[in-house]
Fold:
Amino acid sequence: MKLSAILLCLLSAVSALHADFPIGIYQMDPAAESTYEHIKGIFNYTQSYMQPADAKFADKVRLAEQYGLKMLIPVLAKNFREKSDYMDEVRELVLKYKESPCLGMWYLYDEPEGAETREILTEVYKLLKKETPGIPVALCIAWTKDYPAFKNCADILMPDYYPVKNEVFPEAKLNLFAQFIWNVSRLGKDIMPIAQLMNWKGYPEAMAQKNIDPATCRYPSAAEIRYCNFAAMAMNIKGMFYYSFYNVWRDKQIPYLEQTAGPAIRELRDFAEQVNGTEFTALTTPIGKGNLPDYLAASWVENGDCRIVLVNNTATELIGNFTLQQSAGSGKLIPWGKTRDVKASVQGKTLKLDKLAPWEVMVWQLK
Structure:
């Protein structure tokens, strides 16, 4: 076997391993080795709004295969109604890419609204499942009044909410990101949220509607990204995506991606790999019941090995101890990853800790 073929097999094996928990980047544009080098070791999935019928889409497929990445392959563009034969195009798309090694999921549509759209997406979803029953269908949903009506249009729901605008830390309402995930969990579908990796200054019209000067907007800090990551993990998500590479690239903020966001996302990737296949338990309020609580806790257990996450869902300091609704065992808690090194332990339904800083995340191994 040629060396190039061996390397491709190895990349495919690595991709399959990491794809157990998709960690993806939206708008992976422009498509070039120089841009894909920036996401190496951070993400295992990519997304693009470019339709597969575009001649340049082949470049994205080639690069995904070259870098051992899976893809969310888009199915319907926003303007699909302008074409009377859009269902024929969907069939052609499935035929062309259903055996592609980089196909991870179909990306059905972006932020749908309205009964007519729901009917069409339901029809397309049925076609995708008939032709490729083993390929998940993902659907991005915004916090619209009718988003629950789309729950049967996809296997995986991708709620998106981007809370960081021009507020200084810790004033951005990060809990709204977690609250949306909390709400969507009631629909009984697998969830793969889309977290903020952008600066709202790139959307001046949206900021003008909120009377915010775009020049005052900023990117999420590492602490804010870490909160979004682990608040979502504590709700048993099945992957995480970030919006978007193109925003960072256009703004000439690749150092932000590599030095600030990247380490926070790699920490999530490492944690997800360690807990893959373990038993998840929500230790606080049952997920989706009532409003998002002030703090979330969850555990992941396998063969006596236990990891525990505690997350502050508020912009204020919370003073421990912390009451759990499920027993988490007993013992000393050893900090993991970027967790603050402080004395902590758990005794059944009581987690003993001095305090949680605003939006703070604690990740431990139970000794």
About this structure: The first strand starts at residue 23 and ends at 25.
